[in-house]
């Protein structure tokens, strides 16, 4: 059996293109046709709405034209006296003459005079008419209360009328003797006036026992009955309007083969009861005439264009298909990451130009790929860039200064060779630098065997005391059996200090000046080896810490200064440092914790100060440099000698290492963190112990923290901030997808690599979003996080959730886009209280040109109630994506 021939691919492409062209042209014609009908219908509807408004204005104008003269006439004494006399003498002819004479002056079409009982006495359209009882007429009933207005019906005629009561003064109340009614007829003149203004046709209908009748219209006489017939075909339409008083809005009618849009409005008497209707008519045919011509022209042009396009498409598809196929194959290969394809620049001019452009694009992508790989590999071996911005200018600020004097090098004995002595001093200097850096301090000057360090910011004196206690512990031990231990001398002083750089040779040198520096000199003269001497200012700042530790250090008289001093032994310093601060500037820890000084950590190393560049941990990791320090420990750059690769090692502090429950919890939760594999998350590799010190190994990325960028440049450009914000959300979404919370999102935990890619790091505080029963939670009174980025529920000790991370993301985004934090404060406790109770500073006050959508996003992230924030990270991602469009 022979298979049926199928059209070639080129033919199929032609047929598809032809079908698409037909669909496009047909859709354009259909769309234009539909839009034309809609526009014309809307124009007709707008016209009848305008007609209805004009009619309402005409009606009100007629009432106002009648009301003034009628009231004036009703109050004219001579007129009232004349009418009273005519009524008393039963002389309707006299009243008729009077009303007819006034009609020429006032211009009304109808006037009636009724006696006090509501009985007709005289009327202008019939001199013989009198005696008819009109007391039940709504105008009479309303006129008894005052002026009445509405539509007056006289058989098949309608009038815009007003009625005014006629009274004479009499005690105790005015005497009612009659009613004066005047009106303008609803006739063809009124309808023509409305038509001249609006361009619409108008008809007025009056109700009656025999059904509605046309009392006035602008239509041709032959169309009057046809209009009524068309309205009757609409069911109970006329009854609803004329009998029940319902308004019918924008009704489509066909009258004698013509299409209209009609609007029916009831005409009401003085009591509000319907007595007729006004009909406004706009011609749909007239409105559509112009669009019909455009549609016909479009149809003809579209048909011609379709035929021409189909013919041209058929001719071109046969010639261009082959090079297009090769181009598609090359594009697919490039999408898969292969940029080594090259196209032949043959064929027509357009196809050749496209091939050349595509070849240029592939060459550019190859160069970018190779250059990026080169820079990435090169940057991993380059020296570390500083993570924190240096001082921009000389400044004076409150500081706590620490002086360390290593007496073992003041009078070196002949136990060691000179080279060994210098090597040991280098090791001790690295120990001091590590102890100072781990507490957020800065090593200022090392001159001979004396070292000067500074601490600033919140909790500076406590951090200086902790560093001093650690230095005192590590430098008091002896390294050789035959060597006698020589503890160092340490002193702490606090006060304003001027920092800056001075140049007196080829290189600038950093200096510290001020009373606190001078005070350190005095304190060091008072110290003996193994002592830690505190100035009164430092002791006063730490009074609460000493009280919590149950330690009291009496003041001693100074031999060299009128101020007293406080001297701590190594043991006493360790006891005091065992009481942590209530709030610190970096990672906050509230509640009990193991002692920071005194006892050594399990294993071979007593403190992180023993770990310095050049150290080899576990026979595997060579420490290259210090990357930074936080509340949990110190991060080192290290080389894994087994894998010959660079890693980041986070060595945990002694207070963490001594808490086995905390280590077990970290180990369990880091198992979850290892599962996160995402380009915007710093990978966590392992958790264990090296030489007795717990560690976390992580992916090493050469770059700078977001905190460094913010301190160095302030608010980044909008596009850069949006790029970092999106990548932060992408990384956090990967964690949340595995039900893992981060709980410590802040700029210090976001690193930017050399290609501009942002990575979320430090999952040391991360935890599962939901724990199994009995797994335990963070114990009461133990608060983990950073004050400026803590959500209210974290501060209150409530269970964190995804919304908790989103709050911290909101603070980071606020800082990215405005350059400042949403909550400020002199102390961390003030910041925490503001997170609990104060609204954030409106972002527009910090950045006046902030997009309104971005401002709403930031405010929503910082809602106190977690239920009011974004429910999931993907919702926030979608909002950020919208900011790019």
How is this structure best described in words?
By secondary structure, the protein is α+β, with helices and mostly antiparallel strands. The protein is built from 25 helices and 30 strands. 44% of the residues lie in helices and 21% in strands. The chain starts with 8 loop residues before the first helix and ends with a helix. Strand 3 and strand 4 (157-168) form a beta hairpin. It is elongated and about 145 Å long. Strands 11, 12, 13, 14, 15, 16 and 17 form a seven-stranded mixed beta sheet that branches. The chain has a six-stranded antiparallel beta sheet with strand order 19-20-21-22-24-23. A five-stranded antiparallel beta sheet has the order 2-1-5-4-3. Helix 1 (9-75) crosses helix 5 (188-198), helix 10 (418-438) packs antiparallel against helix 11 and helix 19 (718-737) packs antiparallel against helix 21.
